[in-house]
Each structure stands twice: as structure tokens, then as C-alpha cells.
């Protein structure tokens, strides 16, 4: 199909992963595969928030720097960050130096700790928003579930996480299989989702 990207191996992928060389391994090995690890879920929440207004390529290229700066997104540690840590991060050229997003990450780490106490795990909470039906792949940027998720997180005090960010998070963490219909990775993701034990 015209909207598919033919990768160097001659097989079709989602069109977006032809945008940069680093997208292909991320697309083939991470994007859309179901995740129930709280630290990985929290990392993606934070990175999606940092991406707001920027390209995913920018964030992906800085991901290892973000991991180093935020203790690999261990939210128990990030929740303890002080104004001194904010100042340190504002001097870190390896990440996005945006005070609002840095402070939101610390705030969200504190909210994540509360969520684990209330819900048992982040995974148990987020997987409740798995869509029951999915639209044609990559035709929407929000969904009823992402709108509901963003609304609930806002109510719980999370920041920098609107419906569009929530939908991108759900796509990436495998709450839906949004790989294009011809993409060779789509079937692998579907098998992973079928074998996945929902954490709620």
C-alpha cells in the first residue's frame, strides 16, 4: 500500500518508522508490545509528556540521557527530587530543559507512588483503559478511553498528560494494536497481546 514504508529488509512497516533510522528498531521491538512493568510505564508517561510540542525523534535520541538524569524513571526516587535536583536538570544539556515538564515529572512520580498504594500497581490502573474496540489503525489521535484516562489522571493530580498524550502512551504500551494492517510487526504484536496476562 502507498502508506506503508518498505524497510531495508523489503518488508512493509508503518509509514512513520521510515522517518529516521532509529525509528525502525523502536517500531519492531517496542512500539505496541504490551507492557505491565510499572517503571517502563512511568518512563513512557514522562517521555510522552516531555515530547509535548516536540518530535518523538528528539526524545528517542535523548532517552538514555533521560534515564540517567531520572534514575531510570524509578518513581520512588524521582518523587524525592528537590529544587536542587530541578536546578541540576535545568543545566543538563542531554535532556529537554523545560522547568514545567521537569517539575511535572517529579509531581507525577509522587502521584505514581500514591497510585501504587491505591491500585496495587500502575499497570493495574492503566490496563483498565484498554479499548474494547479499535478504529482503523493510525486514523485517530485520541479515543474515548484516552480522554477518560487523561481526565482521571488530572483528577488525581497528574500534570502534562492530556488526551492526545494519553493516546500515544496507549499505542506505545500495547493497550491497542495500532500497527498498520500491512505492517509485518502487527501480527507479532497481536500474538503478544493474546498471550499477555492483564494485570487487573
TrEMBL record:
A molecular-function term among this protein's GO annotations: metal ion binding
Keyword check for Zinc: yes
Residue numbers binding Zn(2+): 14, 27, 179, 183
Pfam families for this protein: Adenine_glyco
BP GO annotations: base-excision repair
Keyword Metal-binding: yes
This protein's UniProt keywords: Metal-binding, Zinc
InterPro entries from the UniProt entry: Adenine_glyco, DNA-3mA_glycosylase, DNA_glycosylase
PANTHER family: DNA-3-METHYLADENINE GLYCOSYLASE 1, DNA-3-METHYLADENINE GLYCOSYLASE I
This protein's name: DNA-3-methyladenine glycosylase I
Species, as recorded: Vreelandella nigrificans
Amino acid at each position: 500500500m502507498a502508506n506503508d514504508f518498505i524497510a531495508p529488509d523489503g518488508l512493509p512497516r508503518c509509514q512513520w518508522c521510515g522517518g529516521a533510522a532509529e525509528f525502525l528498531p523502536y517500531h519492531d521491538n517496542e512500539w505496541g508490545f504490551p507492557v505491565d512493568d510499572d517503571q517502563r510505564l512511568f518512563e513512557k508517561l514522562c517521555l510522552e509528556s516531555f515530547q509535548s510540542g516536540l518530535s518523538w525523534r528528539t526524545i528517542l535520541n535523548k532517552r538514555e540521557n533521560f534515564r540517567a538524569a531520572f534514575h531510570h524513571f524509578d518513581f520512588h526516587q524521582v518523587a524525592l527530587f528537590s529544587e536542587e535536583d530541578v536546578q541540576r536538570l535545568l543545566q543538563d544539556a542531554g535532556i529537554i530543559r523545560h522547568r514545567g515538564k521537569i517539575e511535572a515529572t517529579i509531581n507525577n512520580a509522587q502521584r505514581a507512588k500514591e497510585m501504587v498504594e491505591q491500585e496495587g500497581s500502575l499497570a493495574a490502573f492503566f490496563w483498565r483503559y484498554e479499548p474494547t474496540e479499535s478504529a482503523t489503525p493510525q486514523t485517530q489521535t485520541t479515543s474515548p478511553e484516552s480522554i477518560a484516562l487523561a481526565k482521571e489522571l488530572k483528577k488525581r493530580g497528574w500534570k502534562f498528560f492530556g488526551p492526545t498524550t494519553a493516546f500515544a502512551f496507549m499505542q506505545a504500551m500495547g493497550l491497542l494494536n495500532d500497527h498498520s494492517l500491512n505492517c509485518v510487526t502487527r501480527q507479532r504484536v497481536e500474538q503478544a497481546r493474546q498471550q499477555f496476562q492483564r494485570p487487573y
